[in-house]
């Protein structure tokens, strides 16, 4: 029987965590073995408030949201460069750096890129932490039009 499933475009969702790096490593290895094109996506969620305020008397405006978003975009660019250098040799790589709802934007980019597979890590949250933050991976799996490969990364106990 011939296998008709071809993963020619792999979307790898990344952030700056070790969980994400493990998923990127797996996704790039898979892409190399299949001769697939890769797209990296990093989504910064909009901050609700900033925790650092300035002192108007001293003329310090503190950190404002546009500055924070610029810093996050720059960090994402550096992350992509690191991943391309360490993992992405001989692979065609596209990049998407976005702001918004992480769950929704991963789905949107997968459709725009015409991904045949999404690879992402999981933070393996449990209990109250999972309840409060939700599971991005689970939401993507439920709403994606293509298969989602979730790479677990568990801490050694």
Automatic annotation (TrEMBL):
It comes from the Bacteria. Its main location: cytoplasm. Pfam families: Usp. Residues 7-152 form the UspA domain. GO terms for cellular component: cytoplasm. InterPro entries: Rossmann-like_a/b/a_fold, Universal_stress_UspA, UspA. Keywords: Cytoplasm. It is found in: Cytoplasm. Belongs to the universal stress protein A family. PANTHER family: STRESS RESPONSE PROTEIN NHAX, UNIVERSAL STRESS PROTEIN UP12. This is Universal stress protein. It comes from Pseudopedobacter saltans (strain ATCC 51119 / DSM 12145 / JCM 21818 / CCUG 39354 / LMG 10337 / NBRC 100064 / NCIMB 13643) (Pedobacter saltans).
